[in-house]
Amino acid sequence: MFKSVRIQNFRQFRDLELRDLAQINLITGKNSAGKTSLLEAVYLLDGPFDPTRTITVAQFRGIGVSPGNPELWDWLFHNRNTSQPFALSGEAEDGQKSTLMASLSQGSLIPTTANGAEGGPGALPSIDYSGPPPALVYETRIDEEAPQRVQLAWTNYELRLDPGLPERRAQGFFLPEFLRAGPAEAVRLSRLELVGQEGRLVEALQVLEPRLRQLKVLDFGEGARVYADIGQHPLVPLAVMGQGVGRLLMIAAAIILRESSVYLVDELADGFHYTTLANVWRVIVNLAVEHSAQIFATTHSLEAIEAAVEGSKGHEDKLALFRLSTRDGEVHVTAVEDEGIRAAVEFAFELR
Amino acid sequence: MSVPAEQPSSTGGQGLLLACEGVDDEQFLIRMLAYLRIEDVVVRKYDGKPRLPTFLLGLRDSTEFETVRALGIFRDADTSARSAFQSVSDRLKRLKLPQPRSSGELITDICDFDGIVRTMGIFIMPDGQSVGELEDLCLRVIAGDPALDCVREFLNCVHVQTGVECRETDRSKAQLNAWLASRHNPSRRLGQAIAARDLNPDSPAFAEVRTFLLDLAGAAQPLAESSS
Predict the structure, then answer these.
(1) Nearest CA in chain A to B67
(2) What pLDDT, in 10s, does the model give residues B20-56?
(3) Which residues lie below 8 Å from residue B100, measured CB to CB, with a gap of 6+?
(4) Nearest residue to A22 via CA among A253, A293, A344
């Protein structure tokens, strides 16, 4: 669990520090203030030996993963200036310090039109490179140990990691705004059944679907899927149960399975009716406390903030809010402790 | 200081926020600001002095505070102007906000909390020194009005005849409300009475309040200019 995080030269952030992180951290701010970028930074820092997480981040952003795409890594760097590394550092609750420096090792990928040919509208340009495809290099230091270097490079149009990932690595959890539950949930549910924990998941989801009795993994030859027993047959595929049920299932299952110690959720309120939000928060907070999970959740929604206050009753000291705002061209962060959140909500002051 | 009735229009640029105790204070300030032609000011009430600490904490931590460049806090002295001032000042200190040295005075300084320069002021009603509240200040405006003698006699008569008597701390409020009820339009409350000039906003008794508001509006002005 992170106590503090510092982000330098990463996306919108020249130098941003979040101190006194809580177990449940709400990230607010206007559009383009950097909420998602902040989650991405924490996600990368949470896997400091795993540069492939940058690929996950790119895919969530809809950025093409190919050696011909100059945007794959460039936008990770502040002002797209890849001549300076980006640095992510954090201090854990137990005092362990981790620092990740990331840089591009060679040249840059600037697509140019071959032979200066001009295509007509919609024509795809030929791509030439101003240099060899770059590699992303991580240099990671934990406490005072010697730094370790990991490189993710294009080789024959494939990404290769050198050296490979450690066998037992943290999986990490990042739930982007648009992601819906899918086949991965069948795997999660199977793993929960294996250890007799599926009942906990059902209990969690009942705040959204009180009729839910059981969750089952069924396979009709097109891959295993999750189905819900809500007291009728045929069973209902999870995919048709609504976005909120799917999102809560992903978060709750991952926490119960301890897939990570840090959980990043973009726009947590998406998919939930505002009247259910407090109960959703209550489930997430209780699971987080029980499983020592740290949550970072972004939101635009005042209802989501109020619901977090309501849903964290009994665990008041575990809630904090960090508001991102842009002043003088730089992103600043304002930390609001639980008492301030509650005071602002009481007087209907704006916290978003 | 007397302020001429025709003021040049000025604006707080929504960078000026005034905090006051209750609905009468809120209406008083809104009407006084209108008289002074100070525009775009946010007036918020904190509903009683016990809630002021929570109000200030919530305000400081809110998004709204990012655009506040001047903050004026009004509080009644009640039984001690000094302790009322000290209480608000201590709260500002705890919130890492600049603290003025006395009632009615302004201080402009960097807020340690977020690094933004703001002007802060505390005004203890009625005048920063005396005991009492907003209504005591208003009674000074009408001090020479013979109707006020009638009001006092009336309240005394009610007490003698029925045994009903308001608390000592509410005496000024009772007198002012009874006086307001004696006007041509008896349904006006304090703020409306300012707008209708039943209570003259240009009275010397309001001079300190007017100066305080004008100075705060002036301090908030740079935000309006820089953001335009």
Answers:
(1) A327
(2) 999 999 999 999 999 999 998 999 999 999 999 999 9
(3) B89, B106, B107, B120, B121, B122
(4) A293
Test the A interface: residue of B55, B59, B63, B91 with most A CBs within 10 Å: B63
| Cross-chain Cβ contact A352/B55 below 8 Å | no
pLDDT at site B2: 37
Distance of CA A123 to CAs A71, A112, A113, A156, B58, Å?
20, 14, 11, 25, 56
pLDDT confidence of residue B40: 87
Whether the CB-CB separation of B225 and B128 falls below 8 Å is answered with: no
Cis peptide before A67 (omega within 30 of 0): no
What does each C-alpha distance from B31 to A322, B194, B205 come to in angstroms? 37, 6, 16
Chain B residues in contact with A323 by the CB 8 A cut-off are 63
pLDDT digits (tens, 9 = 90+) for A38-76: 999 999 999 999 999 999 999 999 888 887 777 789 899
pLDDT of residue A298: 96
Identify the three-state secondary structure at position A157. Answer: coil
ipTM above 0.85, yes or no: no
Q: Closest-CA residue in chain B for A328?
A: B116
In this structure, what are the phi and psi dihedrals at residue A119, rounded to the nearest 5 degrees?
Answer: -85, 160
Among the listed residues A64, A142, A61, the one whose alpha carbon sits nearest the alpha carbon of residue A101: A142
- Rounded to two decimals, the pTM is 0.81
Q: Closest to A344 (Cβ–Cβ): which among B44, B62, B114?
A: B62
Chain A residue nearest residue B54, CA to CA? A343
- Cβ contact (<8 Å) for B54 and A340? no
